[in-house]
């Protein structure tokens, strides 16, 4: 039953773990030479909280990026 609840949450978009992106380690040290549009890791602005090297992204932001 617990697995079904977790799957339902995932399908309904309630579980934000799948929205977490790894932050570019070079960017965190101000050493990344790639623009944020070309780096496969996140380049979050200073006002975004980084936890354990990851940020939680907005679903709509990811959707727009993958469509372009």
UniProtKB/TrEMBL annotation:
It is found in: Nucleus. It comes from the Eukaryota. The keyword Metal-binding applies. One of its GO terms (cellular component) is cytoplasm. A zinc finger (C3H1-type) spans 18-46. One of its GO terms (biological process) is regulation of RNA splicing. Residues 18-46 form the C3H1-type domain. One of its GO terms (molecular function) is zinc ion binding. The keyword Repeat applies. Keywords: Metal-binding, Nucleus, Repeat, Zinc, Zinc-finger. Pfam families: zf-CCCH_10. InterPro entries: Znf-CCCH_Muscleblind-like, Znf_CCCH. Belongs to the muscleblind family. This is C3H1-type domain-containing protein. It comes from Anopheles quadriannulatus.
